[in-house]
């Protein structure tokens, strides 16, 4: 009897040990067969019930993790969960996109973007709020960074939230310029229009009476007309209509833009690459044509020595449509590059300084962006249009 009890104890202990070993290995494929006497059946059924409870709990946890991961990957805020040593435990898709990375497991990977980011991520603490900027293939990126802390099983974790504030900054800057331009053009037009009108009337009176007075009035009138025309050109920045978007073929569109911008045979060669060939864009074709024509003309102007120009259009990994105008012309100096999208800024003798400002405003109205990328491996200057 003792031997029977001992063997029964050993057998049942082995079953329980097997149950725990399987659970530790995340293996729930086993099942105890309900055979033997009623006590064996009771034990086997009880072990199977324990297995089912634990399996259901595990499945619930997995489902909840998938649910929360899905939510996390569908928010626009980038989330990075790290520790104080630089290990990255989790990131969502928004964070990877903002940082321009496909995988992020340690802060040392940030050295490929900007070495200063490594120190920023390592030194950030609970409650920190700051603004960070760096350059990547999308141009200059400005992010707001907020850090909070959570303790899980006595392990300290930092939750870093990243938000792209480029568009917000661009929008505020553009709106400020538009308000200023409206005020200036209104005041200038109010002052110049009566002078121009009066000088025109006086011209008819002094046409044959006094040659010196007539010439002076003519100079005043001509200057006034020129100033009115000058002011009207800046009003364009405040009169951009809302986009009337429709789908059109990028290949045909860019081919037409090339024909319009380079009618003469001696202009630099413009090569076109569209991948896929049937690439489509949902935008206001008339407004985007203003942007592309201006960029092509700028590239032609920079390529005075006949350097070939390349126009590329493609889909990036996020499914966005990208159009790039690339040239190897004279390039844009360091001291000028930060100012090129500011209204009134120009390096051309006859330039108005609003072409790129209008381009940025049009792209913003489309929910996209325009950026300058300099000194790439293949080109001195690349203007990139991104359509979200």
UniProtKB/TrEMBL annotation:
Enzyme Commission number: 2.7.13.3
Reaction(s) this enzyme catalyzes, per UniProt: ATP + protein L-histidine = ADP + protein N-phospho-L-histidine
Keywords from the UniProt entry: ATP-binding, Kinase, Nucleotide-binding, Transferase, Two-component regulatory system
Domain (PAS) ranges: 64-102
Domain Histidine kinase: residue ranges: 183-388
Keyword Transcription on entry: no
A GO molecular-function annotation: protein histidine kinase activity
PROSITE patterns with a match to the protein in the record: HIS_KIN, PAS
GO biological process: phosphorelay signal transduction system
InterPro entries for this protein: HATPase_C_sf, HATPase_dom, His_kinase_dom, PAS, PAS-like_dom_sf, Sig_transdc_His_kin-like_C
Domain of life: Bacteria
Protein name: histidine kinase
Species for this entry: Candidatus Gallibacteroides avistercoris
């Amino acid at each position: 009897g003792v031997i029977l009890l001992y063997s029964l104890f050993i057998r049942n202990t082995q079953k329980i040990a097997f149950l725990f070993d399987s659970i530790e290995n995340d293996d729930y494929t086993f099942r105890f067969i309900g055979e033997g006497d009623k006590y064996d059946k009771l034990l086997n059924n009880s072990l199977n019930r324990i297995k089912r409870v634990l399996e259901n709990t595990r499945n619930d946890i997995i489902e909840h993790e998938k649910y929360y991961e899905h939510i996390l990957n569908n928010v626009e805020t980038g989330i990075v969960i790290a520790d104080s040593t630089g290990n990255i435990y989790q990131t969502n898709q928004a964070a990877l996109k903002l940082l321009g990375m496909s995988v992020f497991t340690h802060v040392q990977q940030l050295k490929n973007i900007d070495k200063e980011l490594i120190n920023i991520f390592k030194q950030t603490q609970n409650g920190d709020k700051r603004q960070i900027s760096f350059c990547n293939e999308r141009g200059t990126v400005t992010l707001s960074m907020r850090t909070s802390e959570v303790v899980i099983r006595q392990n300290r974790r930092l939750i870093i939230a990243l938000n792209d504030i480029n568009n917000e900054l661009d929008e505020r800057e553009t709106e400020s310029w538009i308000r200023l331009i409206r005020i200036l053009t209104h005041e200038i037009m109010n002052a110049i229009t009566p002078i121009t009108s009066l000088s025109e009337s006086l011209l008819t009176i002094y046409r044959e009476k006094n040659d010196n007075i007539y010439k002076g009035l003519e100079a005043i009138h001509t200057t006034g007309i020129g100033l009115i025309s000058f002011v009207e050109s800046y009003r364009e920045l405040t009169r951009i209509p809302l986009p009337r978007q429709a789908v059109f073929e990028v290949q045909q569109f860019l081919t037409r833009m090339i024909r319009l911008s380079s009618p003469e045979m001696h202009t630099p060669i413009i090569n076109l690459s569209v991948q896929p060939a049937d690439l489509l864009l949902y935008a206001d074709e008339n407004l985007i044509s203003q942007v592309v024509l201006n960029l092509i003309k700028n590239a032609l102007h920079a390529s005075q020595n006949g350097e070939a120009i390349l126009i590329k259009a493609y889909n990036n990994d996020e499914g966005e449509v990208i159009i790039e105008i690339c040239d190897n012309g004279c390039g844009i100096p360091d001291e000028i590059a930060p100012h090129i999208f500011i209204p009134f800024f120009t390096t051309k003798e006859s330039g108005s300084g609003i072409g790129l400002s209008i381009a940025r405003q049009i792209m913003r109205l489309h929910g996209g962006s325009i950026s300058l990328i300099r000194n790439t491996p293949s080109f001195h200057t690349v203007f990139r249009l991104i359509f979200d």
